[in-house]
Backbone:
């Protein structure tokens, strides 16, 4: 499964202004921020459930979709609509 097919990653990736990538010794640091409450829910879900679980559980977890957050409310004009 390609990362762009995962619900949370796909919606966060559409917001190109929220992600900053910085080279650091031994890797990279990724910082995702937003003032939009709906997008903030997605960023947190992607970081905790997506990235965090992939690091802890390995490649098999990386191949499964990360669900949208509970009570996720995408409003018209919200994340993924630009």
Residues:
């Amino acid at each position: 499964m390609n990362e762009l097919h995962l619900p949370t990653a796909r919606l966060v990736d559409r917001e190109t202004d929220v992600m900053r990538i910085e080279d650091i010794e031994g890797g990279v640091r990724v910082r995702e921020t937003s003032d939009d409450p709906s997008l903030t829910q997605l960023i947190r879900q992607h970081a905790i459930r997506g990235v965090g679980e992939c690091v802890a559980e390995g490649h098999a977890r990386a191949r499964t979709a990360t669900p949208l957050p509970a009570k996720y409310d995408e409003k018209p004009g919200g994340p993924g609509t630009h």
Notes: The chain is about 40% helix and 15% strand. The first strand starts at residue 19 and ends at 24.
